[in-house]
Amino acid sequence: MFGQVLATEFTKLHRAKATWATLAVLAMMPLGIALFMWIVREPGRAAQLGLVGTKASLAGLEATWPEYFYMLTLVFGIGGMLLLAFIVANLFGREYGDATAKNMLALPVARHWFAVAKLAVAAVWWMALIVLVLLEAMAIGFAMGLPGFSAELAATGLTNVLLAASISFLLAPVVAWIAVLSRGEVAPIAFSLVMLALGNLFGRTGWAEWFPYSIVPLLIGMVADPVDTLTAGSYVVLAGTFTAGTIATILQLRFADNAQ
Amino acid sequence: MEETHPATAVSTRALVKRYRDVTAVDSLNLDVRRGEIYGFLGRNGAGKTTTIRMLLGLIRPSGGEVTVLGRRIIPGETSVFSRVGFLVETATAYPNLTVRENLDIQRRLTGSPPGSVEDSITLLRLGPCAGRRAGQLSLGNKQRLSLARALLHSPELLVLDEPANGLDPAGIVEIRELLRSLADKRGVTVFMSSHILAEVAHLADRIGIIHNGRLIEESSRDDLAAKARSFAADAYTPEEREQALLTLDLERYFLARTGDAATGEAAAGAAATGTAAKGSVA
């Protein structure tokens, strides 16, 4: 039965406008970074075209592959956390927004399969987005002829992006739980925005490695220099967050009132 | 699993649902016999939908128990719903999916054969809009889609919350005939709620009236009709009775004038059932 639930969830994902919106938004990010890099590299031409180059220069950025990878990691880490929250909020919360949850939950299917299938679909789409947009980003980087590329740099950069994306996913079940608890999409997105701000705040304290929403900012260097490796404690916190979020979502679907 | 009397499709015992200070359903004892059409009548807010949600395990009772097709409903236990078709409150579907895709989801998740999608499209006359997205459908066609979804897996029990919502008079008659035929020919039990008296009067074998969460009356349609007739003799003025007859005449006339190949049968059916109803009002 899980296979059938998964197939229906992929059908819903495929036909949802939000799915393609997330691809469009994430695909814009490398283009934005590339534009930023081009302004830094060609301030004269950028000024001629009416693009303000001063802020880009003040940011101290260089139009190189290391900087490009650094910015990609930032964008995938932070923008991705929000985008993934949007995907998960849509998958779970939309069932309540469209009033289809009542139909889904009275089907002869164990309710935990819906939670597992939706999270699996979110994971697959999230990874597909990352891979697609990374390919786009690499193509743009080469097309721009950025200096400083090396295989080692690419391997480190891609590993960081994939690690940040994977860690972001470990936070997704909590978003799913908020969606089914609040029976909608707004609360989980608002929750994610608040957690992002809190994560940024905690990231500047000594508790950063223990607060789940500070771990991605810590890893990608959003609030300080990026850490080389996360502590075992951080991985335990992330695993605990993932497990607690998944169990809470399943229990909510299984035992709580699910009227709309 | 506890097995109730085999002749009972739905049973509730001392069923209670409270929302903080509000008691939505209060000590409800219901027995719906297999193969009958049970009309669950009540005003808006009487507790009909809350009862249906508890029958389908969507909300937990605050007290008492629910048994459906011999199985006690407990939170998260959904296996019995392979034998139950339902429509709760408003007709809903995945708006970005077509009618056919919506039904295919139901087919997959109920383990029904591939042909069941087309069968239910035909049964509910959804052919012309089968390829359209559900979000673009009229309210009446959304209701048909919801009914098609409820019927797709050939359930033994249909739990329908206001099944006539959004349907035009011909559609109402058509659905009425369909439900009657399912009960008579296939032995399907129908538990339908409504606040539209005429709808229940036309169709139900037995009627229960819920008010403020309590079942205040339960009897066969004929018994209830006799009581209503006796009550009406004293309560209605001749003008009011004339108005009620006019409404029925208008329905028959409307169906006759707007009937086509599809609704012709409906009009004929309306004429037949209209006569019966007329008798009960007069």
What can you tell me about this protein's structure?
The complex is a heterodimer of chains A (260) and B (282). With 260 residues, chain A is mostly helical. Chain A has helices at residues 2-15, 17-41, 43-48, 54-58, 65-97, 101-105, 111-144, 151-170, 172-182, 186-202, 212-220, 232-255. Chain B is 44% helix and 23% strand. In chain B, the strands form 2 sheets. A 6-stranded mixed beta sheet of chain B has the order 6-7-8-3-9-10, with helices on both faces. A 4-stranded antiparallel beta sheet of chain B has the order 2-1-4-5, with helices on one face. In chain B, strand 1 and strand 2 (22-33) form a beta hairpin. In chain B, helix 8 (238-258) runs antiparallel to helix 9. Classes of the chains: A mainly alpha (260), B alpha/beta (282). The interface between A and B is medium-sized, with 30 and 33 residues.
List keywords for this structure.
heterodimer; A: 260 residues; mainly alpha; 12 helices; globular; B: 282 residues; alpha/beta; Rossmann fold; 2 domains; 6-stranded mixed sheet; 4-stranded antiparallel sheet; 9 helices; 44% helix; disordered C terminus
Q: Note the overall shape of chain A.
A: globular
Helix and strand run of chain B: EEEHEEEHHHEHEHEEHHH
- Ends distance of chain B: 48 Å
DSSP summary: helix tally of chain A:
12
Kindly give the count of domains of chain A: 1
Oligomer: heterodimer
Runs of chain B with pLDDT <50, length 5+? 261-282
